[in-house]
Amino acid sequence: QLQLVESGGGLVQAGGSLRLSCAASGSFLGVYFMGWYRQAPGNQRELVASFRLGGSTNYADSVKGRFSISRDDAKNTVYLQMNSLKPEDTAVYYCNAKPRFVGRPEFWGQGTQVTVSS
After folding, report:
1. Cβ–Cβ under 8 Å, residues 97 and 109
2. What percentage of the chain carries pLDDT values higher than 70?
3. What does the DSSP assignment read for the chain?
4. Per-residue burial over 36-46, b = 16 or more CB atoms within 10 Å of its CB, e = otherwise
5. For residue 114, what pLDDT is reported?
6. Residue 50: what pLDDT?
């Protein structure tokens, strides 16, 4: 069982920045692909950014150039640096651990609210 705890959400004005953190209860190195998703009211949950095999990263088109995902394996923590925030970035942001191997469970954090005012 892997517990994921997000932090760092809040209220920010358009153009501002926030950094989200996701602390895992155990190591995800080599076992899980870590990522961030978000869900706005009335919308489906969507991928924001994630790590892929080999450590490469993947971003939604809407956040490319503004958001950056990073990780500290020693601290079992994944970050999402969000710059130049827009009102349309307002959502609940979820940390996700997607298993690398078939048969392992997928884990989600409880979510952290990000609100961008215009």
Report:
1. no
2. 100
3. ---EEEE--EEEETT--EEEEEEESS--TTTEEEEEEEE-TTS--EEEEEE-GGG-EEE-TTTTTTEEEEEEGGGTEEEEEE-S--GGG-EEEEEEEEESSTTPPPEE---EEEEEE-
4. bbbeeeeeeee
5. 98
6. 97
State the CB neighbour count (10 A cutoff) for residue 14. Answer: 13
- Structure token digits, residue 108: 């989600």
Residue 101 DSSP label: S
pLDDT in tens, 17-51: 999 999 999 888 888 999 999 999 999 999 999 99
